[in-house]
Amino acid sequence: MASVPVYCLCRLPYDVTRFMIECDVCQDWFHGSCVGVEEDKAADIDQYHCPNCQVTHGPSVSKCRVGRDSGRPVKTGSAQFVRELRSRTFPSADEVLLKPTGAQLTVEFLEERSFSVPVLVLRKDGLGMNLPPSSFSVSDVEHYIGSDKEIDVIDVNRQADLKMKLGEFVEYYNSPNRDRVLNVISLEFSDTRLSNLVETPKIVRKLSWVENLWPEESIFERPNVQKYCLMGVKDSYTDFHIDFGGTSVWYHVLRGEKIFYLIRPTAANLSLFERWSSSSNQNELFFGDQVDMCYKCSLKQGNTLFIPTGWIHAVLTPVDCLAFGGNFLHSLNIDMQLRAYEIEKRLSTADLFRFPNFETVCWYVGKHLLDTFRGLRENRRHPATYLVHGAKALNNAFRSWTRKESLAEHEHEIPETIKTQQLVKDLAKEIRLVEVRVKGRAGSANGAGSSLQQFQPHMATLSDFDSEDELQIDETPPPRRRPSLSSLPRKLPRAKPCSDPHRIREPGEVDFDIEEDYTTDEEMLTVQGVKGGAGGILDLLKASKQVAGLDSALSEEAPASPSTRDAIQGMLSMANPPSSSSSSSSSSPLSISGGGEMLGLIKEKGGRAGWISGVKKSEKKTTFQRPGKRPVKRPARHLSDEESLDEQETLGTCFKDSDYVYPSLESDEEDHISKSKMKRKRNWDDTPWSPKARVTPTLPKQERPVREGARVASVETGLAAAAAKLAQQVSFCPTLCQNFYRCGPLHTITLDEHL
């Protein structure tokens, strides 16, 4: 078996947890603790000589320190850098800060301002925060956490990380002679006894995703980023950064002072920050000089500062300081949190400096937002705008994380209880429903206007008819395009102030109730069709006071104009032909209550048509109606010569008044163009003459012999389909539409086309 290599004076195998340094003479490796070399000082050694080689080659050679006078730039964190930073002037953060009292800092306060600028609270009263007394020291921190706790420490001069025992750092902190500047900013103590002495601000507890939405049964480790203890000596400096995962952060100075240099997270500044972070000479450039504005904020003892999502900031400690703080994700700036997270990934930030299980908590939040949107919609309440925008950004991130090419990188953070594809689909649906309701409130007035314009009557003129030389009844009205579902305006929701003054509003919910109408498009089409037809004639009839069954309020309206009365008279003459009976047809769902008979046309022999009222006309030609269906016409048969003459005489009783003739006949569906070119001899009998009427031949068509083998299957199929369609036509507009010109002169369109 191969032997394990050993190193150092102690001749032990390599241990990854122990610092080692290589001798430049013998190339052997030595533990720093065995040869008296500390890890943080190793960077200052140019050539290291181990104890054995020092006998022949002398002591180790240190690096030459070159000052600014030599032309080399000042390194970030160096003593000279700190001195120059102290002497510089910056715009005051008072230009952008909000300064509420602790009691004023509520969820509503931040929602109104979108938590887009830092918030400074001078006194902790009203924040709902528990802290140790100001006499609390780093030695007390050691007491509650334990001296053997290994912590991460920053060597400020070298801007490098190293590990120490808490007891060692406390000894250094309390020492009067410090040979270096060390800073502790990442000591999380939620799982220690010190946690019992510190309670985060109430506003943080209400907003935090981890505090409120992380399930106890989750198999993932709960992110502990809520409680940090920060211990820094004088001249400690932390360079510009965005807190991991785009988290917001709270700081409270218990003892000492902190100075923050704040930069807005604009698109330009974030781009510059990403470029600066990836540059090779980052530690030689002060990022505050590359942006348009860098604000300075001094945080004194007893002050509390809340820094929003994405704000780029650096921190200087002018005197020894003990502070508490914490990070939290929330719903007020979801989009910015995701942008910061993407910047971290592009910069290949080490996992140690990233928010633990960031994507996992996002999935839990996505499920929560879906339930929230559904609940608000079912209760006719509306989510706040920032929540809708955040949900959209989160759903876009979900799509990106679950793409086939990137799923392997992200699936380890997806909770097993989350059905990713279904969640993405359902959340997108709820977002669309919210956006439709929001747009609907703004466009409801315009929609109503367009609806009125769409159904506004277009009165026919004399030029719409042919000359008097062609006295023919136009049996083929021009086809009309049926209104589409999308062209009809929906009844849109309306926002009104909340009617319940005692209702408790949840974060992300607005103070408005939404009145919604969930009528389907098909129902809206039917309702609006009836209103566009029957409603108009009813208005005319109401104005003339000639409709039975109207209430007394309607009878008090002003009398109609002469032209309106003439139009009503014509319609009534149509509704009451001489041959009609007074019996009503109760089978039609569109019959007008109190209005008498159900009127219609039926086709008879030879393609002629006659009026039908009640059951009188059914002696010649009957119709049958299926439950819930339109009347179905029997197949027409050819008229004999005698019957044709009788029908021609019926034309003499065509319904008319002093101004208009209301033709009631329809012919066979012959070619309209051919008929328009044919000249007919004028009819000089007693039939009333009208320039709008056309007379067609009364003789029946001659029977032609059918050739054997001439039938084609496809033609037969087409004829059968046409016959089925014709059987569903309604011979009269049952809603008595006042816009009869839209239905054609003979009102022979189908009910669907009319509506």
TrEMBL record:
The keyword Transcription applies. Residues 497-508 have a biased composition (Basic and acidic residues). CDD domains: PHD_PHF2_like. Its main location: nucleus. Residues 577-592 have a biased composition (Low complexity). Residues 464-512, 571-598, 610-648, 666-707 are annotated as: Disordered. InterPro entries: JHD (IPR041070), JHDM1_Histone_Demethylase (IPR050690), JmjC_dom (IPR003347), Zinc_finger_PHD-type_CS (IPR019786), Znf_FYVE_PHD (IPR011011), Znf_PHD (IPR001965), Znf_PHD-finger (IPR019787), Znf_RING/FYVE/PHD (IPR013083). One of its GO terms (biological process) is chromatin organization. It comes from the Eukaryota. Gene3D superfamilies: 1.20.58.1360, Cupin, Zinc/RING finger domain, C3HC4 (zinc finger). One of its GO terms (molecular function) is zinc ion binding. It is found in: Nucleus. Residues 627-637 have a biased composition (Basic residues). Residues 5-56 form the PHD-type domain. SUPFAM superfamilies: Clavaminate synthase-like, FYVE/PHD zinc finger. Keywords: Chromatin regulator, Dioxygenase, Iron, Metal-binding, Nucleus, Oxidoreductase, Transcription, Transcription regulation, Zinc, Zinc-finger. Belongs to the JHDM1 histone demethylase family. JHDM1D subfamily. This is PHD finger protein 8. It comes from Cyprinus carpio (Common carp).
